[in-house]
């Protein structure tokens, strides 16, 4: 019992990760070994440095990259001594493949967002919001509601990045509003993704495993709404009831801006189609979508001169000196420059935690905790704990562990674990991919401790959503 409790507490200290190592051979049990304890210690120390990023001014990718190398070096040494290095290599390659899919997916999403920013779409959206006279409170609700309804289609990570880019443009230097708005976006994006098979990776996993059909996700809609509204209503009371301190100006979109938005929507549709129809990883569709942007960039470059001549002639005819000046600063669209503007610290941070927890999974800790939860606890309490674990550990390995255990549960409990795994990550900024990505996108303004202060309010929404699900869908628990 003492060992089980210590492993459970240690597991609570693990941030998000990829799926557990998938090996076809017997692994070496190392949960009570020197290597196992050393790996836990190294990762806990690295994780502490990540949480102290805003005070140490140390990029969060650095400690986890070092920890990943040390953990796998120790694993490699032990497996070499036992003559089973091929097992460790198989697990390593599996985790690398999982990270590669995540990296490329995020890279394409970030590239599109960077392209839309370069084409001044967010500047135009900011100008529109200012021209409409929206105050900070209205902006808080507008971005949150948009995040909630876009995430079931676009996925919670992409939606959060898009809304955060808008907030950063509109809010100016109001750090308090940026922090509250980012928390609101994370909650909304995670809640919106919980009732759709395409809104979150965990919902996709449950759907693909056949435990919940496409139409059977709909009972989660109202619990998801409650999960978002409860903390949003409380936080909105603390949003400054004032207008952004920005000067209203006319923003002219650069050529091709709207078409890039259309291509982004087409890219998301392509990714969904690859997964739903062909059963391929969505990243294949995302990379195909990057080709859409590359070809469009080629078209913009090839037709640049003709477009400039036409606009110059129009400006001369209208005697518009400002338009002529703007045309003189036009530069060709470059996709690879947009790629270089991706948030590489966040992408490398993903690598570090994926590989660290992949190593800890190979050591045996993930399976041990999963066994305790679903053999000794009531399924409802275990599913509620899954959501709490998802705030500290990523929901992907937690849900993967649940699916691997294949517990005998009612439809109500399968929907409950889908809900809690999806929205539980909102409790902490590091509990979901959306939160981690926004810490990078709003670096220094949306932080771990800034989110932590609002955890009790977010927990109210978490509890309320569970109660609503149990009351409204009680017949599904039979």
UniProtKB/TrEMBL annotation:
GO terms for molecular function: antiporter activity. Its main location: membrane. It is a multi-pass membrane protein. The chain crosses the membrane at residues 30-52, 64-82, 220-239, 260-277, 283-300, 347-368, 380-403, 415-442, 454-472. GO terms for biological process: sodium ion transport. GO terms for cellular component: membrane. Residues 47-422 form the Citrate transporter-like domain. The keyword S-adenosyl-L-methionine does not apply. The keyword Endoplasmic reticulum does not apply. Keywords: Antiport, Ion transport, Membrane, Signal, Sodium, Sodium transport, Transmembrane, Transmembrane helix, Transport. Pfam families: CitMHS (PF03600). InterPro entries: Cit_transptr-like_dom (IPR004680), NhaD-like (IPR045016). It is found in: Membrane. Residues 1-20 form the signal peptide. Belongs to the NhaD Na(+)/H(+) (TC 2.A.62) antiporter family. This is Sodium:proton antiporter. It comes from Vibrio hepatarius.
């Amino acid at each position: 019992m003492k060992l089980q409790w210590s492993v459970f507490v240690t597991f609570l200290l693990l941030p998000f990760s990829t799926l557990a190592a998938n090996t076809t051979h017997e692994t070496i049990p190392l949960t009570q070994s020197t290597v196992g304890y050393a790996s836990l210690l190294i990762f806990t120390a690295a994780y502490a440095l990540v949480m102290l990023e805003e005070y140490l001014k140390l990029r969060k990718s650095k400690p986890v990259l070092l920890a990943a190398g040390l953990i796998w070096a120790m694993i490699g040494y032990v497996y070499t001594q036992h003559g089973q290095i091929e097992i460790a290599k198989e697990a390593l390659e599996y985790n690398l493949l999982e990270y590669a899919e995540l990296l490329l997916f995020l890279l394409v999403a970030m590239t599109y967002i960077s392209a839309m920013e370069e084409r001044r779409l967010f500047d135009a959206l900011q100008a529109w919001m200012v021209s409409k006279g929206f105050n900070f409170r209205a902006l808080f609700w507008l971005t949150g509601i948009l995040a909630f309804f876009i995430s079931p289609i676009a996925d919670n990570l992409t939606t959060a990045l898009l809304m955060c880019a808008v907030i950063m443009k509109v809010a100016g230097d109001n750090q308090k509003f940026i922090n509250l708005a980012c928390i609101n976006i994370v909650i909304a994006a995670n809640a919106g993704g919980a009732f759709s098979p395409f809104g979150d990776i965990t919902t996709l996993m449950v759907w693909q495993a056949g435990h919940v059909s496409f139409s059977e996700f709909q009972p989660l809609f109202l619990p998801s709404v409650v999960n978002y509204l409860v903390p949003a209503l409380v936080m909105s009371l603390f949003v400054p009831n004032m207008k952004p301190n920005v000067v209203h100006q006319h923003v002219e979109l650069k050529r091709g801006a709207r078409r890039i938005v259309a291509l982004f929507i087409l890219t998301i549709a392509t990714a969904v189609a690859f997964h739903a129809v062909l059963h391929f990883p969505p990243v294949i569709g995302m990379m195909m979508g990057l080709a859409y942007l590359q070809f469009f960039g080629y078209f913009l470059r090839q037709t640049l001169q003709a477009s400039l001549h036409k606009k110059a002639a129009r400006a001369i005819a209208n005697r518009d000196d400002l338009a002529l000046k703007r045309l003189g600063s036009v530069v060709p669209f470059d996709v690879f420059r947009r790629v270089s503007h991706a948030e590489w610290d966040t992408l490398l941070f993903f690598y570090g935690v994926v590989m660290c927890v992949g190593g800890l999974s190979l050591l045996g800790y993930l399976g041990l905790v999963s066994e305790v939860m679903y053999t000794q606890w009531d399924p409802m309490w275990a599913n509620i704990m899954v959501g709490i674990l998802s705030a500290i550990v990523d929901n992907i390995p937690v849900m993967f562990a649940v699916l691997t255990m294949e517990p005998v549960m009612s439809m109500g409990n399968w929907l409950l674990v889908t809900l809690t795994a999806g929205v539980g990550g909102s409790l902490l900024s590091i509990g979901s991919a959306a939160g981690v990505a926004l810490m990078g996108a709003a670096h220094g303004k949306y932080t771990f401790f800034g989110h932590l202060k609002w955890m009790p309010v977010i927990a109210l929404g978490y509890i309320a959503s569970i109660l609503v699900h149990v009351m409204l869908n009680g017949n599904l628990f039979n």
